[in-house]
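User: Structure with iron/sulfur cluster, tokens only please.
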Amino acid sequence: MKLYLIRPRGFCAGVVRAINIVEKALKLYGAPIYIKHEIVHNKHVVNSLKEKGAIFVEDLNEIPMGSKVIYSAHGISPQIRNEAKKRNLIEIDATCGLVTKIHSAVKRYASKGYKIILIGKKKHVEIIGIYNEAPSVTTIIENTKDIDLLNFKKEEKLFFITQTTLSTDDVIDIKKSLLNKYPNIETLPTSSICYATTNRQNALKEITNNVDLVLVIGDPTSSNSNRLKEVAIKRNKMAYLVNSKDEIDPKWFEGINSIAMTAGASTPENIVQSCIEKLYDFGLKEIEEIIYKKEDVIFELPTQLLNV
Ligand code: SF4
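Assistant:
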């Protein structure tokens, strides 16, 4: 059995920055450091930071007044920022810059009188944060069917934007239907699906047709990991999303000659390597790395942590 190991895979610049922020904050201020929501959607990352003294909370009321709080890479609503100020929390922002860009666009267009159509998963924390920038004028849609339910007037000023980690295939269809219904709808000049999501999906598309099975290493709560699995399934390929070597089932490989492996943007490389090791028990003989694109994106740390 041959494994095609796809690059780029795993950590993106936003995830590297978010993890660095937690580690440096722990070093500078000492434990405990509170984090609103999982810093990134990966239980291995979260557990290792918990061991170092990070405490993950969903509700700011769980944080003692005056403590330090880090906002996760997925971003936060302005209401939560206000709540933090009322509790005298010292805020450290690990929101990915590419998510912040969407918050800013929504605020800007809402202030100019546009109605906002936000394309994304309603329950995803990134979408909840963005929606709350302008809740009275924002409508979230998840798919083309939701477009049928929109009843904006043709003369209304409309703006659409997407979550950073959606499927590029799905967004092409949604965009087409939106433009069909509202030809004057506006958006940003470039896609708001981030570079890491786009690269990982495009890289997988290049190889999917040449393999029998696709393995995506990632957390079940990770949006971009789930989208990678969908990329393969949409191309009629057997695909599994696993978060550790123990979830790999030997039955999957009966009669299989070739596998493609990728990993979501929040998956640590050591987890990928442990999954590869496991595949040797199930008949892996050869590995070839497939390089779609080299990534050299780096996001700067917040000023208070730059010299730690
Ligand atoms: S997946 Fe994209 S948006 Fe999310 S943290 Fe990484 S670079 Fe930023």
